Amino acid sequence: MQNPPDLRPDLARARVSETKRDGQPTIGMVSLGCPKALVDSERILTRLRAEGYGISADYAGADAVIVNTCGFLDSAKAESLEAIGEALAENGRVIVTGCLGAEPDYITGAHPRVLAVTGPHQYEQVLDAVHAAVPPSPDPFIDLLPASGVSLTPRHYSYLKIAEGCNHKCKFCIIPDMRGRLASRPAHAVLREAEKLVESGVKELLVISQDTSAYGTDIKHATERGHRAHITDLARDLGSLGAWVRLHYIYPYPHVRDLIPLMTAHSDSGGLVLPYLDVPFQHAHPDTLRRMARPAHAERTLDRIAEWRAICPDITLRSTFIVGYPGETEAEFQTLLDWLDEAQLDRVGCFQYENVAGARSNALPDHVDPAVKQDRWDRFMQKAQAISEAKLAAKVGLHMDVIVDDIDEDGIATCRTKADAPEIDGNLFIDEDTGGLAVGDIVKVEVDEAGEYDLWGRRT
C-alpha cells in the first residue's frame, strides 16, 4: 500500500501557510529522493525564510523554483530530469541542487535553461544561486523565522540527520562519491536540534544518516559540551526528550547490541527508543555479498538477530534487499529466500538491481536477464508478504499505542504503530469513534483486523 502523495517525502512540496507581503520574493521547492535529501531541503528553505523570502507551495506563486534531485539510480535520475522539465515548463526559472547536481553536464545537457546547478548539501552555493536569480528583499519588522524552521513533513514527526557521507565502498553505490566520507555532527548540536523540534510539537524523531551505527567514529566519539558522539549515547540522550525515537540505516555491527536494552521497556534504562531497527542487509549469500563488497557473514547476522530478539522480544526489524545482482545464480537467490525464512523480518523492501553511472558493479560479469530479475523479485516479495501477513495476524487482540498521521473527510484515521515508519511501512486504520482525534495524537487501540501489510483497530 502506498501513502497519499501529499505524505510522500519524494514528492514533497513546502508546507507553509502564510500571506505574502508586498514586494516579498518567493521561492518554490520540489524535493526528490531520500529523507536525507528532505532534511537538506528543509535547511535551505529555513535559511531562505530567515532572509525574508516567502515559500510558495506551487509553481505559479514562485519567482524561482529549487529542485532538489536524486541521482542514486538511473530511474531516479530520469525522475529528477522529469521534475526539472516540469518546473521549467510551469515556472521557467529553475535552480537545481542535490545528488544529481554532482553531474552538472548531465543536467544542462538535458535542460540547458536551468539557472544554476549545485551538488548535494552545498547550502551556500544554493543560496548564492537564489540571490543571483531573485535578490532578497527582507523586512526586519515582518520576516521572522519560526523557531522550528521550515518543515516538509507533517508537524508531528521530523527527520533528524546526524551525519553526512559514508565510508563503505559497496560496488553498487555511488553515495560516497556524491556525498563524501562519513562526517558526523557534534552530539550536542544534534541534541539541541532535537530539543527544538520537540519543543515545537514534534512527537517522533526519525534518526537518519547513510550509516547511523557508525556515527561518531570519524571524530573518535568526541565528547563536547557534555555529550559523546556515539550512537548509543546519542540514542539515550534523544530518548530522554519524551518523543518517539526511531533509528534508520543501522548496519549490524557488534556494538548495535548495546542499543537494544534502550528499547526494552522493562529494563532499567529501557523504553527510551522505539523497538525498531532498519538494517540494510542487502543479501544473504556470502558470494553475492563479496561481489557487492559488503561483509559476507550472513550466518552472523542471523545470530545477531536472535540475540536482539532475546533482549527485546518486541523488536521490529526492517530491511531492504537487492535481487538480480550481477552474477547472482539461482542457488544464491534460493539462499536468500531460505535466509528470509529463518530471519522472519517484520518489514521488507526489495529492489531489482540496475546499473548506476559510475558504480563499480557495472563492470561485473554475468548481468542477470531482466525477466529473471522480475521473476526473483516476484518470488521474494511473495515470501516477504506471507511473513508479514502472519506476523500482523498475530497482533490481533493486542493493545498498542499508535500515532495519528491523517484523518480524512470520512473520519477515517490513518495511524502508525511503533513498528511502522512513515512512508515505508504499513498503517493502522481507525474507522469509527475518531471524533476528537487530531493529527499527531498518540492513542491506545485494540487491533481487531489484520491484512498483508496493514492493521485495523478501535480506540480503547
UniProtKB/TrEMBL annotation:
<keyword id="KW-0411">Iron-sulfur</keyword>
<feature type="domain" description="Radical SAM core">
    <location>
        <begin position="152"/>
        <end position="390"/>
    </location>
</feature>
<keyword id="KW-0479">Metal-binding</keyword>
<keyword id="KW-0963">Cytoplasm</keyword>
<dbReference type="InterPro" id="IPR005839">
    <property type="entry name" value="Methylthiotransferase"/>
</dbReference>
<dbReference type="Pfam" id="PF00919">
    <property type="entry name" value="UPF0004"/>
</dbReference>
<keyword id="KW-0689">Ribosomal protein</keyword>
<feature type="binding site">
    <location>
        <position position="99"/>
    </location>
    <ligand>
        <name>[4Fe-4S] cluster 1</name>
    </ligand>
</feature>
<comment type="function">
    <text>Catalyzes the methylthiolation of an aspartic acid residue of ribosomal protein uS12.</text>
</comment>
<feature type="binding site">
    <location>
        <position position="34"/>
    </location>
    <ligand>
        <name>[4Fe-4S] cluster 1</name>
    </ligand>
</feature>
<feature type="binding site">
    <location>
        <position position="166"/>
    </location>
    <ligand>
        <name>[4Fe-4S] cluster 2</name>
    </ligand>
</feature>
<keyword id="KW-0687">Ribonucleoprotein</keyword>
<dbReference type="Pfam" id="PF04055">
    <property type="entry name" value="Radical_SAM"/>
</dbReference>
<dbReference type="InterPro" id="IPR038135">
    <property type="entry name" value="Methylthiotransferase_N_sf"/>
</dbReference>
<keyword id="KW-0949">S-adenosyl-L-methionine</keyword>
<dbReference type="GO" id="GO:0005840">
    <property type="term" value="C:ribosome"/>
</dbReference>
<dbReference type="InterPro" id="IPR006638">
    <property type="entry name" value="Elp3/MiaA/NifB-like_rSAM"/>
</dbReference>
<keyword id="KW-0808">Transferase</keyword>
<feature type="binding site">
    <location>
        <position position="173"/>
    </location>
    <ligand>
        <name>[4Fe-4S] cluster 2</name>
    </ligand>
</feature>
<protein>
    <recommendedName>
        <fullName>Ribosomal protein uS12 methylthiotransferase RimO</fullName>
        <ecNumber>2.8.4.4</ecNumber>
    </recommendedName>
</protein>
<dbReference type="InterPro" id="IPR007197">
    <property type="entry name" value="rSAM"/>
</dbReference>
<feature type="binding site">
    <location>
        <position position="170"/>
    </location>
    <ligand>
        <name>[4Fe-4S] cluster 2</name>
    </ligand>
</feature>
<dbReference type="InterPro" id="IPR058240">
    <property type="entry name" value="rSAM_sf"/>
</dbReference>
<feature type="domain" description="TRAM">
    <location>
        <begin position="393"/>
        <end position="460"/>
    </location>
</feature>
<dbReference type="InterPro" id="IPR023404">
    <property type="entry name" value="rSAM_horseshoe"/>
</dbReference>
<dbReference type="InterPro" id="IPR002792">
    <property type="entry name" value="TRAM_dom"/>
</dbReference>
<dbReference type="InterPro" id="IPR013848">
    <property type="entry name" value="Methylthiotransferase_N"/>
</dbReference>
<feature type="domain" description="MTTase N-terminal">
    <location>
        <begin position="25"/>
        <end position="135"/>
    </location>
</feature>
<keyword id="KW-0408">Iron</keyword>
<dbReference type="InterPro" id="IPR012340">
    <property type="entry name" value="NA-bd_OB-fold"/>
</dbReference>
<dbReference type="Pfam" id="PF18693">
    <property type="entry name" value="TRAM_2"/>
</dbReference>
<dbReference type="GO" id="GO:0103039">
    <property type="term" value="F:protein methylthiotransferase activity"/>
</dbReference>
<dbReference type="InterPro" id="IPR005840">
    <property type="entry name" value="Ribosomal_uS12_MeSTrfase_RimO"/>
</dbReference>
<feature type="binding site">
    <location>
        <position position="70"/>
    </location>
    <ligand>
        <name>[4Fe-4S] cluster 1</name>
    </ligand>
</feature>
<comment type="similarity">
    <text>Belongs to the methylthiotransferase family. RimO subfamily.</text>
</comment>
<keyword id="KW-0004">4Fe-4S</keyword>
